[in-house]
Amino acid sequence: MAIFFALFFYIYDYYNNSTSIFLVDPRYNTYLFDNGEQILSTKYKYVKLDEIPPELIYFLLWTEDREFYEHNGINIKAMTRAALTNIKNFSIVQGGSTLTQQLAKTVYLTNERTIKRKIMDIMLSFFLERSYTKEEILEAYVNSVYLGNDISGFGAAAKRYYGKDLQSLSYEEMLVLIGIINGPEVYNPYKYPERAKNQGMIVLNSLPNNFIIEGKDILTGKIDKMVFYPQTYDERYLNLIYRIKAEEENIGLKGGGYTIKTTFNKNLFDSVTVNSSTSAIVINNKTGEILSFWGGEYDVFYSQQQVGSAIKPFYYLLALENGYDKDTTLPDQPMKFGDWAPENFDKTYRGTVTLEEALVDSINIPSIYLASHIDISPQRSIETIKNFLSNIVGVQGKYPNDLTLALGTLETSPYEFTKAYSIFPNYGLIPSPYIITEVYDKKGNLIYKRHPNIERKIEDISNDSYAAMNTLMRKVVLEGTGQRANVLDLDLHGKTGTSDLSAWFVGYTGSEVLTSMVKGEDLLSSYTAVPLAREIATSLLYYGQSEEVYVYLSLKSIQESISFFESPIDFVSTGGNVVGYLNSVKLDYPFKELEKNINSALREIQYLYPDVMKEIEQWKKENLMDFFQDPFSFIQNGYDLESYLNSITIDKDTQEKLMEIYNQIKYIYPDQSKIIEKILE
What we know:
This protein is α+β, with helices and mostly antiparallel strands. It has 29 helices and 15 strands. Strands 4-3-15-14-13 form a five-stranded antiparallel sheet, with helices on both faces. It has a four-stranded mixed sheet with strand order 1-2-10-11, with helices on one face. The two termini are 63 Å apart. One of its GO terms (biological process) is peptidoglycan biosynthetic process.
């Protein structure tokens, strides 16, 4: 008795400090492309009890535990029979375990065949039966039982072996899956398909005849002809999974059994093939969704390679803002900067060139000259360029402290530079990139949803300067070093870059930014990175949005003379881009005033321009979320919460709602929570 009570309290303490029977291994999540297709084969798929076919439950209980609803966790008769068999064979060859014991072993113990493990699963089963209902135990078992090939549960097994949802399984498929339970490796459908099918027939023949609507002979024939669904596994997808898991940590997702929908476009990914020296990435430059990337996750997101001439558009932009224009004349002749005597790639000099020619043809000497005159001295110029790239645009990397920066000795990753190039099609806005769009728990409840968010807004650069740079970088693709990337009917802009150990092309349309990078010595970007970029750009025509870069017609007159809010009809009739305008002024107005201005303008144009009205309504749906309706979206869109709350009446109902929202966001957005605290005081 003393030994019994000691064991009882030891295992009871062990049980109380263990996990729920519904906890799943954290590796077992289902990852989906943006169209809902799975990225890798399912390892785990939660199925609720009322979604499990009743025939499967009958077959399972008959085969594994016929007295499941009668016993209290252990079956003395079955255990006695198993004990006699084990004594006869002088080893543990039969378990006599109930479904509850099998569940206890799966969740809490190991597969070792020892007396200690048997005693523990008996007592744990006793505790489980007192903590959970029979239905909960059955549901947990169906979702956790090991069925080979790293699969947990019948839901995942149905997907992996038959390409079906559990509810769609035929009788013969159910029987084979149940047969696998007794030996997941011995009856592995991929390694030993005939063994798996024979075991299914054994289960079939053990059933009473009245269990089966069809005759057993018919089902035997179907099992014999059964073909298992092929394994769908592509090692290239592993890098996508690694990146998703990195974002899981960033959003605080812990545990397993989740269904995670991502931004990855399967068709886009599958349409491009790269080798081991190549990396590429595409980001939606309006939402921040990472549509695809190719190559190793480390190479794309963390490696640091010199960007070469791909850096030039950033300081050319500063020059345009300082009063230069495309026709400004720049010297192209031998120059020396201290001990450094740079050369043009073709070793020739033209005397003078225009700013446009220097960028389109990627000529080094005039570019270095331009970079050295951004500020009052070459050193101050370098500091200004570094500050712009590092602190304002936010490019993380290794920066030199000398004028070689003008030729791209900055070392950074394709991911960082892709983000940075967003400022050109977006006229100064950089969206916050993300991969995970939605997360569902094991019961199908939506527990996380990501909305687009602006990461940075570049101040003090005019739309005229951005527009001029967009014109220049379109010419790079049409006439300059990026010609090989040009695709008919695609408004692609971009810039090439070549360094000692890598070649680059960074480009953009009105809806996507892409970067291709090839590592190696003595490379030419026009023959390596640029053709790859063209392959990706071609795929964007079929699988992307392929919008044109916004063109601000008569920018000053549109911005200064014609405001969409003041003269909506004139603005639209003169070619103004309404969505682009709304994006540019989104954060310039208090939320309520912005909402009021948009609705007022809509009333004026609704009958004249119904197509534009639809675009605005869609923009409102994506961007104009009221704080009380969707506080997370409101904050993520960057609206000023303090001015919003000051513009409304705070009554008792509002205070209660604010307190409710406060409790939801206080740990996620502590700065915004303090604003609510101040208002509630």
